[in-house]
Every structure is written in C-alpha cells, then in structure tokens.
Write a structure and sequence with these properties.
Layout (H helix, E strand, L loop, with lengths): L1 H6 L3 H6 L3 E5 L3 H18 L10 H4 L4 E7 L4 E9 L8 E9 L7 H15 L4 E7 L3 H6 L3 E8 L2 E8 L3 H10 L2 H5 L14 E2 L5 E8 L1 H6 L1 H18 L3 E11 L2 H18 L3 E8 L4 E9 L14 E6 L4 E2 L8 E2 L6 H14 L3 E4 L4 H13 L2 E5 L11 H6 L5 E5 L10 E9 L4 E4 L5 E5 L10
Parallel strand pairs: 4-5, 10-11, 17-20
Antiparallel strand pairs: 1-2, 2-3, 3-4, 5-7, 6-7, 8-9, 9-12, 10-12, 13-18, 13-19, 14-15, 16-18, 17-19, 20-21
GO molecular function: acyltransferase activity, transferring groups other than amino-acyl groups; thiamine-phosphate kinase activity
Protein name: GNAT family N-acetyltransferase
Pfam families: Acetyltransf_1, AIRS, AIRS_C
C-alpha cells in the first residue's frame, strides 16, 4: 500500500502510515521469524533458556501466534496464545513468549498484549492468563490485568496474571440488572418473585409472558414467531406447568410481514401441540411481538427454591446448530424436533420435581444460574468442564447464548427430558454471585452478587 501511495506522490499519507501492524502469523516464515526473535531475547540476551525456548505449546496446532511487523514487513515482535491444557478446549487459554526486538521496544509490547486479549475473547475464552517477568508486571497492570500470585518460570521469578474477561457479567447486567428497581412493588407472588411465570392466585393456572426483541422480529420474522412460542412454553416448563394455550400480540408494517411472523408462530404452535387461543394483530405499525402462555400446575416449582449444598444440573438439547445470522448468540435445536421430543422436554421438570428450576434464556447459563442463586438467597459454583456443550460451540458462546431448550435445576434428580442431555455441573453455596471452577481447581468470579436486584423469591 505504501508503494502505491508513493507512486501517486502522496507523501503525506506515507508519512502517516503506522510504524507497525499486528496480525496473525499465517505462514511458516512468520512463525520462524518469531521464534528467532525469542531465541535472540530469551536465550542469548536474558539467558533464561539454554539452546532454545521451544516447548509443547509450539507443537500444539491450536496455538495462535500474533506478530508485529514494521513498515518494511519485518517481524519485530510476537506473542503466542492457546488452550491451557491438552484435550477439549474448556475456554481457559494462556498467553506467553511475548517478545519484541531490542531496537523496536516501546509501544509494540502493549499492542501485542491488547491484540492477544481481543483474540482470546473473540475465541470464546472465559479465563485468560499469562506468566509475566516481574519487571513487566507494571505494563500488564497498566493494561488492566490482575495479579494472581508469584510463580517461577525457567528458574526466574515471574507473576501469574489474569485478564478479567467480563462477558457473562456484562450480559447479565445488560439484560437483567434493572429489573429490581423497575419492578419492586409492581408484580410478584410470594415465593415466586422473579420466576419465569407466575401462579394465578386461587387456581392451578400459571401464566407466562415474553416479548421478542423488535430488531429480531424485523430481521428474521419466521424465527421470531417460532421463538415467541419456544420461550413461553419453556417458561411454563421450568415451573412444572403443562401448557394449555397461547395468546399473541403482533404489530407489523403490513399484511405480508405479519404473515411471515405468524407462519413461524403457527409452526411452533403445531410442533409443540399448544393452541393459539386468541390475541391481537395491528398493521401499519413498527414490528412488535409478544406472547402470553397459560399452563396448569397443582404445585408450581419455584426458581428460588434452592439451598446451599444442593447440586446444580444443566439439562440441554445439544442437537442443532447456530441459527443463521446469530452465530454465537442463538442455538437452534428445536425446529428439527418432532412433537413427542418437544413435549418430553417440556414435561421433564414436572416429572423430576427439583427444589428449584429455571430455563436458560437472555442472561445465558451463568446469568441464569446467578438468578437461581439470588432468588434462593445464596451463591453458586459452576464447574466449567462439566457443563454439557455442543461440539460446535465455544465455552464463551455457549455460556452466554440463548440455547433453545436448557434447564438449570437444583436439589433434584436427573430430568427425563427425552433427547436432551443432562449433567451435574456445580452446586449452590453460601454467599452471593457465581464462581466458575476450572479443571485445575482454580476459582474465578463471573457474577459478583445479585443479577436482577429482586432478591429472595
């Protein structure tokens, strides 16, 4: 690009070109140049290693190398990152071997660290760490990293540092944190405050209501129609209620658009075997869709019925794929299921009768577990590696997406949920918030305290 600008006589743009750029190493030459820099600095300059500094991470095909190139394209720095352990990637990565050529030291090191953090988070990582030479702790702290503890690497003092990945907390805050202040004194049946549905006093009826985000209705009206049924029957199922009917309220710009939304709603109604009893449709207005579901349960199951010491189980339908256009955000398994399979999943909580149950929706697995814990007046620990997860989903995506059918339960047996897969993956504990427990026993905090602010159910 600089050659083209020079030929065009644009000397000003040439002068304004950055001194370096950071990119992923795509060929053997770039990786070898990076390794040569490591040998120059870590072996010959610092004497940390004898002969070479290569290790098993250099042979792991999952390891990613980011390099910094100067204006001439010469590799003048680099860093590597990848999964911390052999076997399945559980969303725990480590960075290391950060190196910059002696003549280029300055801003390049910080840029490489920032690029590594961005790459790791984009790869669905929820725990990202690095062992840092003691003099470099100041740099990492300035960039937002947190000190964990002192360690020794190659016989030299280092510091284990951790990049604070706040993906789960940010989602919970964005979707749920305002509920307490907005809804206090407005709604709620004692024992079921903050639940997915609400028992109608004096009856065995349970009502649930969900609205679909207007931008989703505009973008994918058929899927929005399907989801309007899905989320509501899941809400009823989480309370152990069998669905008996739906009411829909639809706003659409014209008849054609309304027909597309209703086509998805109609297919879901038939697939789940739940009739649409009535509703309201208005044309000539911006897209809007909400559905109310009615069900029956003699003894509804609360979302806040858990106690410290109870094991937590996730039961989820892992079949399917990311919904086109929503990769990493919405998992679609239900549209390919037959009615008996869908009904088996819906009836599973009622059959097992756990102490607490909540379906995973907008707040993701971590945020929803935080809601169960908050309503139960305790905290929760989630075993990252034990959470059932589809092969096609990273930990970061799966823990923060809308997963189709997924139920979190506490204090009860396995759910007889047909094609869905379940596993114990944590427990309720004294305290507040949600902590992630990793295969090495390390604990990292994902949710500091309450999610909704609604408090005890």
């Amino acid at each position: 690009m600089m050659d083209v600008l020079a030929v065009l006589g644009d000397s000003t743009s040439v002068a304004r070109q950055p001194d370096f750029r950071v990119e992923q190493a795509q060929d053997t030459a770039a990786i070898e140049a990076y390794r040569a820099l490591r040998a120059e600095v870590f072996v010959r300059e610092q004497g940390l290693f004898t002969g070479h500094d290569l290790d098993f991470r250099d042979e792991d095909p999952r390891t990613v190398v980011l390099v910094a190139r100067d204006r001439e394209g010469t590799v003048v720095g680099g860093v590597r990152l990848g999964p911390a352990e052999e076997g399945p990637d559980v969303g725990w990565w480590v960075g290391g071997r950060l190196v910059v050529a002696p003549a280029s030291r300055g801003r390049i090191g910080a840029a490489l660290v920032r690029a590594a953090c961005a790459y790791a988070e984009n790869a669905g990582v929820l725990r990202f760490e690095a062992t840092v030479q003691v003099p470099n702790e100041i740099l990492f702290t300035r960039l937002g990293w947190e000190r964990v503890r002192p360690v020794t690497v190659a016989g030299a003092p280092h510091v284990l540092m951790r990049w604070p990945v706040g993906r789960a907390a940010a989602l919970a805050k964005a979707t749920k944190s305002d509920l307490g202040s907005l809804l206090t004194g407005l709604t709620g049946v004692p024992g079921f405050v903050g639940d997915d549905g609400v028992p109608v006093p004096g009856s065995d009826l349970v009502a649930a209501c969900d609205a679909i985000v207007p931008s989703m209705v505009e973008r994918d009206p058929d899927w929005a129609g399907w989801c309007s049924v899905l989320v509501n029957v899941n809400d009823l199922a989480a309370m152990g209620a069998g669905p008996v009917g739906l009411l829909d309220a639809l706003g659409a710009r014209d008849r054609s658009f309304a027909a597309r939304v209703l086509a998805g709603l109609r297919r879901a109604s038939r697939a789940y075997g739940v009739p649409v009893l009535g509703g309201h449709t208005q044309l000539g207005v911006p897209a809007a869709l909400s559905v109310t579901a009615l069900g029956r349960a003699a003894r509804p199951i609360p979302g806040g019925g858990g106690k410290p010491g109870q094991r937590v189980r996730l039961t989820a339908d892992l079949a399917g794929r990311w919904r086109p256009g929503y990769a990493g955000r919405q998992w679609d398994s239900t549209t390919t299921r037959r009615t008996p399979e869908l009904r088996a999943m819906l009836a599973s909580v009622a059959a097992a009768r756990p102490a607490a149950a909540k379906d995973v929706s907008m707040a993701g697995i971590v945020g929803t577990l935080g809601m169960v814990a908050e309503a139960s007046g305790c905290g929760a620990v989630l075993d990252v590696a034990a959470v059932p997860r589809p092969d096609g989903a990273t930990v970061g995506d799966w823990f923060t997406c809308f997963p189709g059918f997924a139920m979190l339960t506490a204090g009860g047996p396995a759910l007889p949920a047909g094609p869905a897969v379940g596993a114990e993956c944590g427990e309720l504990v004294a305290g507040r918030g949600v902590v992630l427990r990793w295969p090495d026993g390390e604990l990292t905090r994902a949710i500091e305290s309450g999610v909704t602010g609604l408090g005890l159910a």
